[in-house]
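I wish you would study the pair of lines that follows with an eye to the fold:

===
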Amino acid sequence: KRDLRLYDHAPLTAALANGPVMPLYILEPELWQQPDMSGRQFGFLQECVEELARDLAARGQPLVIRIGDAASILADLCAAHCVQRIHAHQETWNGWTYERDRRVMRWARSAGIKVQEYQQFGVHRRMTSRRGWASRWDQLMEQPILPAPDHLPAIDVTGDVTGDRWPTPRDIGIVDDPCPQRQTGGRQAGLHLMASFFETRGRDYRAAMATPVKAADSCSRLSAYLAFGCLSVREVWQESQAQRARGRHGWATQIRSFESRLHWHCHFIQKLED
């Protein structure tokens, strides 16, 4: 889903502890035809998936990419490969993905497939009360960061499973959306921006974030990498804490202000989720 990384990835860690894993990304054309989607987002996603595929291949197990309806694809793969359990992060996106998750859960119950979901952000599904939400966010951010696996055991995946060709935007109904200076997708680009923010760009963050002239350079520019899960909120939060502990002159105020925005990232998504 929108967790396109191997580092700090609870579902992957748990799945590997129970046996061979088929890493799967399903591209859903109907999702990309929704009014809140765009060509520049699709281009960013493609770069994220391509980098993830390279990272997985280097560890012994290629990424399986399928295009179509999630419930149908999962049903086919589970039947063909005797899958017993699906591990995935919870995904808080738009109304379409919420209904897709409900369809997948209905199929899984009928098929006797266990779906284990893990929390990725400080956003909780099915909360009956917001009481205690802030402390639960803190607890999640303080948990140890999970390392990326060194190796994934190779599984026998037939050619027709991995053979889906990544479509062009026009193939799935996305209108032309030229954005020549958009950010590049993928974890490495996100890590580079995080490093430059804490080393130099964020030195006047608190004042500069309010002005369009300066914000483009002085803000972290990590939003897209958090949204697609190239970076986890927890690793950014813990890196921010470590940078603040270094005690560089004048940086504590800037970093505290940035940490407030990491809280707000989840706070407002939680409102929408509720």
The radius of gyration is 19 Å. The first strand starts at residue 24 and ends at 27.
